[in-house]
Amino acid sequence: MPEPEPSRSPLPSAVGDDLGLGLTIPGRGSVDEAGRRQVHPISPLVHGVGALPIGFVIVFAMSAGAFGRWGLSAGAVIVLLLIALPLVVGAWSYVGWRNLWFWFDEDGDFRVDSGVLTKQQRRLQLSRLQSVDVAQPLVARLFSMAELTVEVAGTQGSRVKLQFLQLADARALRSELLARAAGLRHDVGEAPEEPVATVAPRDLAVSLLLRTTTAFLLLLTAVIVVGTVWSSGWGGLVLALFTGGLPVLMVVAEFIKYFNFTVSRSPDGLRLRFGMAKTETRTVPPGRVQAIEYVEPLLWRHWGWVRLRVNIAGVGGEDSGGQKEETILVPVATRAVADDIVQRVLPGLDLGALSWTTAPERSRRRSPIQWRNLGVAWDGSVFATRCGRLTRRLTVIPHARTQSVRLTQGPWERALDLASVHVDSTPGPVKVSGLHLDAVAARTIADEQSARAERGRSEDRSIRWAAGDDGDDAGP
Amino acid sequence: MADRTNEAFTSGDEWTPVSSKLTTARRLLLGLAYLLVIAGVVALFVIGRVPEFVAWTGLAVALVGFIWLWWLIGRRVRSFGYSERGDDLLVTSGIMFRRLVIVPYGRMQLVDVKAGPIDRWMGLTTVQLHTAAATTDAAIPGLEPQIAADLRDRLARRGEQRSAGL
Fold first, then answer.
1. With an 8 Å Cβ cutoff, are A457 and B164 in contact?
2. CA nearest neighbour of A409 among A394, A421, A419
3. In what helix (H) or strand (E) does residue A92 lie, and over which residues does it extend?
4. Share of chain A above pLDDT 90, in %
5. Can you give the residue ranges of every domain in chain B?
6. Taking CA A163 as the corner, what is the angle to CA A157 and CA A165, rounded to the nearest 5 degrees?
7. Of A138, A317, B7, B145, which has the most beta carbons under 10 Å away?
8. Are B131 and A403 an interchain contact pair (Cβ–Cβ within 8 Å)?
């Protein structure tokens, strides 16, 4: 059954409009008789242009004098690199483009056929969809193009990237994917959005500078510089270059990445938009958040700021595409705004009502600084832990998302009759650990948490969130 | 106090130990690894570039290390145990760093049964449980092949009854 044309939303959404730089290429990828679609035919050109900076870098690196050695004039090499490289990349991309097809099959699964030498046919079960991202890398923005990343639960290779679609087409495809995953009719069009929070660039910059490690390194740098100048021992400046340069680079990188961060709510889930050079849109469907962490560095407390980090199956963690990525819901926000955002992904969460089981006083001999803040708590639907003194951390995991429970005890904990409870979540930045609790109490908590996990699962209804059925085809 | 701490890791359940053949297998592996160490120490004596007392110290350290590891393997293998409860599986291990993993049957994504060359020769297998969390780490080494196969089938069956998505 051939699918109808993707419905294009009649009105463009108000938030996060196209950040293209003017060039708009009309048209779209062709659709064959079986309803299979292609990405936009301009994609090879985008890839080719995208290779230009690499050419420049090589030219720059070689300008140190390698040209002469090869008996080539510098001009010839530059022309060769700056013309040939994009041409080769573009040609390769063209062949890839000809072989890339995506469509929805009769069972409602999303199918992607790709590959030039090695053919790959992928079938994504939309009931296991974790997130859909629309991103505009800098080069793609030149042409008002966007790439779409589809993430389903699974391990390696479960991520599909479609490069490139017109922004409107990418949006339409995203809403179609999300609507199908939610069990709705797939031609409902783009879901309306309602802004929840925005991060001012000034707040972002200040917050990044005041993170505990960064602030410490910057302070250390200042001390080194002052000490070096005062003692005229110039060797310290090299050290200062490291202790000062590294955090500054990290702050700048994160500032560019999370620039203009906005969180908005749509029936598809939470929509995150951010980025300066590369603008990204990430949609987190409800019920896909596996664990949440509130991070509160010491120097943020003056403003009551927190950062929200999350685990989403298949996104972030160590094993998605080999890249370690921190998945966050908001880089910095006041506690009230953060709680509001959390309410959208874990409705009914009431952290204030939790009663905490704290680490016993003897744990001070294991962790003299953070012991006062150590503790775990739980209610009918979530398990929570807190730790840290300088940077306070609070983690929350729903019972329905608990994968397994671990009890660990090192030699020092053993001497003090303490043990730690860890609740395992899918790979991601959030680690849920209740540290240094009374050993016997910890065991009881672990046993009970396993039982709660089992119960929580049977009560969970969030897999096909919009249709409200039991999510019976949700997984293995 | 020590009893109370032990209780946290051992209480309440019927623990099945792993086969004592695992001790032999691991000591065999230790012996093989020590062939290299011995070769190194012998080289110290033969080359003679270093003072003799260094070589003797090396030999003594290697010997003490061997005895200690030999003893440690026995204790470590005895520390392994698993317990099948109504709704979850418990796996415990470790002496210095003790560990108890509780995996609800409904969360198991797959069950691996595997055996290395020495294990195979000794007739031992490892059953490993995987959940969607990479940190779960629930492996039971040193099981007789028949016991391992039965355990795998039981676990898979229970997992299927309670199957769930992420």
1. yes
2. A419
3. helix A85-98
4. 31
5. 21-76, 81-161
6. 135
7. A317
8. yes
What pLDDT is stored for residue A471 in this prediction? 36
Count the Cβ atoms, other than its own, within 10 Å of residue B46.
9
Q: Is the dihedral of CA A185, A188, A189, A191 positive or negative?
A: negative
Please name every residue paired with A109 in a beta bridge, in sequence order, or none if there are none.
none
Strands (E), A350-455: 357-358, 375-378, 382-387, 392-398, 404-409, 418-424, 432-438
> Cα distance from A471 to chain B (closest Cα, Å)?
8
Q: Which of A146-160, A179-193, A219-233, B84-98 has the highest mean pLDDT?
A: B84-98
Residues 454 through 473 of chain A touching chain B, CB cutoff 8 Å:
454, 457, 460, 463, 471
Q: How many CB atoms lie within 10 A of CB B147?
A: 16
CATH class of B81-161: mainly beta
Say which DSSP state A192 is in: P
**pLDDT tens sequence across A252-282:** 999 999 999 999 988 778 888 898 888 888 8
For the stretch A258-277, what's the b/e string if a residue is b when 16 or more beta carbons lie within 10 angstroms of its beta carbon?
A: bbbbbbbbbbbbbbbbbbee
3-state secondary structure B46-90: HHCCCCHHHHHHHHHHHHHHHHHHHHHHHHHHHHCEEEECCCEEE
Are residues A115 and A131 in contact, defined by beta-carbon separation less than 8 angstroms?
no
Please identify which residue in the block is written with the tokens 């530059």. A78
ipTM value, please give it: 0.88
